[in-house]
Amino acid sequence: MDPHAVKKAVVVGAGVMGHSIAQVFAQTGIEVNLVDLNQDLLDRAEHLVRNNLETLAEFGRVASEDIPAITARVHPTTDLGAACQGVDFAIEAVAELDDVKRRVFGQLEAACPQGTVLASNTSSLEVFNLLSEVKRRDRVVVAHWFAPPHIVPLVEVCPGPETDPAVVEFTAGLMTRAGKKVVVMRQFVQSFIVNRIQGLIAMGVWEMIDNGWATAEEIDLAVKSSLGIRLPIVGVVQTMDFTGLDLIKDIRGDESPPTILDLVAKGHLGAKTSKGIYDYGGRTETEILKKRDRRYLKVLELLEAIDAFEPI
Ligand SMILES: NC(=O)c1ccc[n+]([C@@H]2O[C@H](COP(=O)([O-])OP(=O)(O)OC[C@H]3O[C@@H](n4cnc5c(N)ncnc54)[C@H](O)[C@@H]3O)[C@@H](O)[C@H]2O)c1
């Protein structure tokens, strides 16, 4: 299974995600059949793809003269059976409903060649429990993209209990070939990495809004002008190395995560000891902070320049 040998793919569902996933494959030079239930939805998808490509061209991410060839590689159709003929990779981006996913996987199983990898873009469903119609479950995998797929780099790849490791490697390779940043999960966990974190954030947000503790605008301003500057540079894990793991232990007390307790016991407190969750290779605290702060200031400059603290 060579991701570079993939010539033809099918994307089922041409909505918010599907049209843009198909576009990314087309930009990669892959012929892609894009399936939806009626012609109006497909016409809308074609229109959106053209519009997306024009926006990318404004930013030099696509050459304007390449747009006709890219759009010509997207083949919209309502005929799922025909769309699966000869495809190397299939991905469904249909509604997040058990019955719909189960039916589509059955149709993909029936229509795709034996060796085709069948991927799901599910955000949170246990798709591996919806494969009653699929015999070769070893070829089913999650490839979870982020909206809008033609801009956001990440794809989370996640195997089910029966997925062949070669299928995982192939899928990760294909996503990389399509220019994506790939994170491969060790096993299926509900919502994968990002939506798991986002779900916890959303719970906190609705608690604040519903209790009237802060307005939507205040919460967004607070987050954009704090986490918004730090997140792109130190993520949600490395940031703790800058807080200080000893402080986190003091704050969390008995509820401290075992990893934090272990690191603190070893004297690995974060940037200040040149080792914490990350290893800073013996660099001094000032060196580490200077590197971090230069990046923070670049982000701040950009956010100010584009008025990012104002709502869209
Ligand atoms: N919207 C997001 O931000 C986002 C992000 C990541 C993952 N996802 C996941 O992607 C999937 C699709 O989400 P979406 O937001 O694009 O939904 P959407 O409603 O915009 O699009 C789904 C499309 O699938 C089509 N469809 C439904 N049943 C079909 C069938 N049997 N055959 C062919 N087409 C069919 C619908 O007509 C619709 O156009 C879901 O599993 C969702 O959880 C969504």
CATH class of the largest domain: Alpha Beta
Structural class designation: alpha/beta
Strand content: 5-15%
Widest beta sheet: strand line-up: 3-2-1-4-5-6-7-8
> Strand count, sense and closure of the main sheet?
8 strands, mixed
Query: CATH architecture of the largest domain, please?
Result: 3-Layer(aba) Sandwich
Summarize the structure in words.
This protein has 312 residues and is an alpha/beta fold. The chain has two domains: 3-184, NAD(P)-binding Rossmann-like Domain (Rossmann fold, 3-Layer(aba) Sandwich); 214-305, Orthogonal Bundle (N-(1-d-carboxylethyl)-l-norvaline Dehydrogenase, domain 2), CATH 1.10.1040. 46% of the residues lie in helices and 12% in strands. The protein has helices spanning 18-27, 39-58, 67-72, 80-83, 98-111, 165-177, 194-210, 216-224, 227-234, 238-243, 245-252, 258-265, 285-305; strands spanning 8-12, 31-35, 74-77, 89-92, 117-120, 140-145, 154-159, 181-184. Strands 3-2-1-4-5-6-7-8 form an eight-stranded mixed β-sheet, with helices on both faces. α1 (18-27) packs across α2 (39-58) and α9 packs across α13. The longest helix is centred in the C-terminal third of the chain and has 21 residues, at 285-305. The chain is globular, with a radius of gyration of 22 Å. The model has no long low-confidence stretch (mean pLDDT 97).
